[in-house]
Amino acid sequence: MPLNVFGEELECCCTSPLTGFYRDGFCRTGQHDTGRHVVCARVTEAFLAFSLSMGNDLITPRPEYDFPGLKPGDRWCLCALRWKEAYDAGVAPPVYLQATNERALNYIDINILISHAEKTNP
């Protein structure tokens, strides 16, 4: 089982909507996951608008990719670099650290992630 940013067993990010590169609820990654969907975040309106402006529409459902479309408040496994871009732009959504894969640390400093931790767990 993959580990989270604290070196502990990775917790489930979300099952409704069912998230993760492998659509199993976990922010796991592998060789085919070029985006590294390893940051478990609760998306916000500002983040969704930012992502859309960067060419990644996370709002519109895409059933052919088993993608339900997101709304503010949904938890989702985000690409590490997209989350970091949102952070740099001042619109990074809160992160659920226990469900954020340790591989996120290859792209984002742990202190930045901690500063954006969700205030409450699910």
Task: Describe the model.
- With 122 residues, the protein is an alpha+beta fold.
- The chain is built from 3 helices and 2 strands.
- It has helices spanning 45-53, 80-88, 110-115; strands at residues 37-42, 75-79.
- It has a two-stranded antiparallel ribbon.
- The longest helix is centred in the middle third of the chain and has 9 residues, at 45-53.
- The two termini are 21 Å apart.
* String of helices and strands: EHEHH
The first-to-last residue Cα distance is 21 Å
Mean pLDDT: 94
Placed side by side, the strands forming the largest sheet appear as 1-2
Q: In total, how many beta strands?
A: 2
- Uncertain stretches of 5 or more adjacent residues: none
Helix content: 10-25%
Shape: globular
User: Strand pairing plus helix content: what structural class?
Assistant: alpha+beta
Helix tally equals 3
